[in-house]
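Hey,
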Amino acid sequence: MNAARIVSKSLLISPELLIILLGLGIWTWWPTPLEYLAGQAATAGEVLRFVGLLAVGLVAYDVAAVKSILLPEDDRRHHLQHWPRYFELRVAALVGLFYAVLFAGSGVIASFLDWTKPTAAHAALLLVAVVGGLTTAGTLFLAQLSIGILLRKHTGTGANGLRS
């Protein structure tokens, strides 16, 4: 499979893209719940406005998770890097990081919008940033966990790197 196809597959078949499309779809065809949420956010004060910055904080976790996925500490003999599909794994991890930065940027933008007169677009951007950031962190966590389990199973090492 060529590189462009692997990147396209990772970008297009992902829960992060689904969240973006859901946010756009709800904002476009069913904005009433978003307008209600935006109104509630306006009355909640300044604190809720900065909830979008949660996605920025999650990027730090995501970077560490991607490093742990691609270069796990338990893989002292580099079995993972010699796996035939390692390039696909690397692309998928980096696409996850791309989405994390995209959601963080959306959260920053949402935080600096005028929340004295919020609209459905405000709520959509804030929700996509937060839910998308949490989803990216969750998928990277699950990948990190799965790789750790597989490495321990196939290399016979425990959590401390010693053979069992």
